[in-house]
Amino acid sequence: MTRTRRRPYADQRPRDLGGGVSSVPVPIPGNPLGYTLVYAIDSPAGPVLVDAGWNHHDAWQALRTGLAAVGVDVRDVRGVVVTHFHPDHAGLAGRVREESGAWIAMHEADAQLVKLMRGLGQGEHHDFQSEMLRRAGAGAHELPSIADARPDPPAQPDRELRDGDLIDVPGRVLRAVHTPGHTPGHLCLHLEDAARLFTGDHILPDITPHIGIYPYDRDDVDPLADFLASLDRVAALGLTEALPAHEWTLPDAAARAAEIRAHHEDKLERLAALVTEPLTIWEIAARMTWNRPWADLSPILRGMAAGEAAAHLRALEARGLIRRLPEVDPVRFVALHS
């Protein structure tokens, strides 16, 4: 949630990136992120898309016309590889499948989350969100607007991927690289025959991806540690061009990975200095630095900020720098020796 020199969707155009790869900007209506970059990889058996965009009429029209501008008919799409299950990436995958008969592929961990989401009723979702927010220390007035926000779940994928799997793109070598953190099943896709890496939301040029814990008070996962380890995995690939899902391409994925790692280490250091007295997750999030004052954040953004605060608190706890107080509701954290 850092500041960005975000380029508006109105300035974006479909682009031939060379080497049989094109990019198509697909709008995210009503969202300040603006758009998702969907990539098309040519193959003799038909193009394969990396991500698909938000499930909205305007987005669908932009995807169809954008693909046509780079010589791709959406009806010829062979498959859609989804970097992760979030709606601005996976939302239109089902529509592409309906139009072309394409397969949809996703990492198995995110595929399980999609299955869970599709089986969860609106009432169950509301109850889950409300209890999570209450245990984090959110005020009662903030619960309804956050708990009721729920985009439609994406289509269930046809194929489940694991780390190291080769994607079905005839004539190309596209390998799945499991990079958890932003989601449990986030994938980067290494186009090994061209030293290119489709990074999804794992590496972005000017912002850092959201790393959160849901429910906020889980102590059996450490998504920030997973994310930092995934950055190291990307750096170990050597010099690769980064093709992210937002903003713009970068010549050196490893260099940007190092910058993002340094950002989070600095954030952890500053957060540890805040937890000098027992505080709830919500109180801690309100004291952290975001891209605008806490009072100006919408309820939805406060919920995301709390998730990110929780992930950093969990990382500090796992490193032995803070502790959660036992049998306290809402959950509270404090420095280890306080």
UniProtKB/TrEMBL annotation:
Source superkingdom? Bacteria
Disordered: region residues: 1-23, 142-163
Q: List each copy of the Metallo-beta-lactamase domain by range.
A: 35-246
Q: Spell out the PANTHER family in the cross-references.
A: ENDORIBONUCLEASE LACTB2, METALLO-BETA-LACTAMASE SUPERFAMILY POTEIN
Protein name in the entry: MBL fold metallo-hydrolase
Organism of origin is Nonomuraea mangrovi
Q: What is the lineage of its organism?
A: Bacteria, Bacillati, Actinomycetota, Actinomycetes, Streptosporangiales
